[in-house]
Amino acid sequence: MNEIAWERRCVLGALLALAALPGAQAQSADLVAVVAANSKAPPKLSAEELSAIFMGTAKSFPNGERAVPIDQKAGTPPYAGFYQKAAGKTEAQMKAYWSRIMFTGKGQPPQEGGDGAAVKKLVAANPNMVGYIEASLVDASVRVIADIK
Hints:
This protein has helices at residues 3-20, 22-26, 47-54, 77-86, 91-103, 116-125; strands spanning 31-36, 68-71, 111-112, 129-134, 142-148. It is an alpha/beta fold. The chain has a single domain (29-148), classed as Periplasmic binding protein-like II (D-Maltodextrin-Binding Protein, domain 2, 3-Layer(aba) Sandwich). It has a 5-stranded mixed β-sheet with strand order 3-2-4-1-5, with helices on both faces. It is globular and about 40 Å long. Keywords: Signal.
């Protein structure tokens, strides 16, 4: 076997090993944006509206109600998956984005709420908060306002 073929086999093996990691599948989990069941937020948000809230360019829902975004823990598959799908940015790009925004004094990143269950609990208790969780965690305490695709 020549050197190029060997390198290709090594790269392929590494990719297969990464795909088998538990976190690799979690990123593909269906994510939804949620608000409290009693929130006055609109019934649905567009991808652009949701992105604007989490990127700090919108401070309220389209109907004028205050919006407080809550992130899952940075470095987790849901965090990376959300920003990749909602804003088209990698985790590294988000870190650079917020570093620039904070340096210029133009804003702060969303508060970190923990894992999906913790975010759901925070959002359910505050009608102004909006977060993203795995679709399997949705129950009567929260209302889905956007599918993250």
